[in-house]
């Protein structure tokens, strides 16, 4: 049995806490060469020991319990591989004696750092290795560079040949990359046709010498694309490569910043239709970093209610009466400061959180409406922006009904504002959801009307289900300055009257704009001429003041 274990599972022999031997399976699966692991404290690669019942253990406690067990002892732990990636393992310990000698046998429970197609490591491994090297760089000189390599137009290989050939191409490319860098770095496959090369230099050479080496390597990598890559005796495929390279030397606080810089450079390299490489600036792109920081912080901002709902009043142009509020999300990040709504709403759609975020906003607004009503605050109808991507979801109406029932919010108090629909994939579901929302008693408005053909098509298609069309602020900006803008708005208002849809103008900033809109037949307006979006307490005060003083007293700012 011991021989079988020796052949199949990684083994370490330890004496007085120091590794004295390892088998070939250990070097193959964990990655260390025998000379690199022998003489090393076992505690330096083994951590988070616990019993199989998940009770924490020290190494000493584990050994003591092993001595008492007739057939050894099983435990769970993390074993750090040669790239400093923590592998979850189950350990069997045997042979403990008074001299402190024992054998550890490991079963790897999961290794998420392996790419199943190429056999290379993946992004998990390169992140762990890079962060470890960057920490070492604080103590002694180390040169480090990240190259992100992308196979240009790779998808055509899968399309023309098949996925097996595509996988074989990636495998051969991975082998060529590994052969080029040898022992000086790590090659990983991130995803699809993107590879990462982490180049290390620990010999104390100058940063200029190291940069020259990286430059030569980039040229060799580009030369790989000069000739077809041979996959078999009768099949060779030609592809170019785009490379983005992190800045020179150790100039990044962590791997994340290094990766962002290399990715930024990669996008520049892709602009050339041949093999090309671009070095990143030492100062990483603030736009990309900002974008990624928001992506990381957004889910937590929702969970911890860092995003606040403000409300902008809407008024009747004929009577000055407060007829509605628009709910607007506001996010002030502790470090990033104020984040514009169009930025984080766009990111919500990008990372697939738009559905949950929109419903979260609906829930917060419904709760607030009920709270105002219970406090006898005279709240009008509240409009909520809903992405078309959310509105075309098959479960939207069911989730909406659940929120309305849970909060006991009257449906007549809620209006859904539909945004851009040009990229809608499921128009039939979108149409059905609009009809169902109307049946629930909610009003429907088209937001930002006049900025694109899709909005015109939307009101033509859904005019029987629409209540309000909102003129985009860009249409109002010059309405008092040019005849063209004035006539354009006039025609939109006339069209809305034909369709029996009321019109609300956004972005009204002057008394002249409000007066002209009223003259042209516009029904409602909102904008800085009246009020900016206000937090809950301020808008409640305004609504009470309107009730006490009458509509004309609070119509203006």
Describe this structure in words.
The model is unreliable at 551-557 (pLDDT under 50). The chain is built from 20 helices and 22 strands. The protein is of the alpha/beta class and 557 residues long. The strands form four sheets. It has an eight-stranded mixed beta barrel, surrounded by six helices. Strands 2-1-6-5-4-3 form a six-stranded antiparallel sheet. It has a five-stranded mixed sheet with strand order 8-9-7-12-13, sandwiched between helices. Helix 12 (354-374) runs parallel beside helix 14 (396-407). A hairpin with a 6-residue loop joins strand 5 (86-94) and strand 6 (101-108). 36% of the residues are buried. The longest helix is centred in the middle third of the chain and has 21 residues, at 354-374.
Topology:
Blueprint: H1 2-8, E1 11-15, E2 18-22, H2 24-30, H3 34-37, E3 46-50, H4 59-68, E4 73-80, E5 86-94, E6 101-108, H5 123-136, E7 143-151, H6 155-160, H7 163-181, E8 185-191, E9 194-201, H8 207-223, E10 229-232, E11 235-237, E12 241-245, H9 255-269, E13 276-279, H10 286-303, E14 307-316, E15 322-333, E16 337-339, H11 341-350, H12 354-374, E17 381-386, H13 388-391, H14 396-407, E18 414-418, H15 427-440, E19 443-449, H16 453-462, E20 468-471, H17 473-476, H18 483-498, E21 502-505, H19 511-520, E22 524-525, H20 536-549
Parallel strand pairs: 12-13, 15-17, 17-18, 18-19, 19-20, 20-21, 21-22
Antiparallel strand pairs: 1-2, 1-6, 3-4, 4-5, 5-6, 7-9, 7-12, 8-9, 10-11, 14-15, 14-22, 15-16
